[in-house]
Amino acid sequence: IRRIIRYVQENYPYSMRLEDVSRTLYLSPRQINRLMNKFFSVTFHAYLMQYRLNAARELLCREDCSVEEVAERAGFRSHYYMYQAFRRAGMPTPAAIRRSGR
Questions:
Q1: pLDDT 10s digits, 3-14
Q2: pTM of the model
């Protein structure tokens, strides 16, 4: 599980497919999801999305860059997709997070 988490931490800004991760870590996609469910009660993709959302929130609070740049640095395909992900997760909009600073 540490290898999976380290891989996410090091590669979250890049496009990531479960099949590619499984080849890199020499685990099947099913094994990865089983481990993620056992330790975190979420699938690999749900964990990755939450990690990206947290990274984007940190960047919005700490960095003085555009929302588009935050989306790119956090691994989202576009700022529009990032807004959708924030909304689906029940989080405030990126602009509201930037204004509140948390």
A1: 999 999 999 999
A2: 0.91
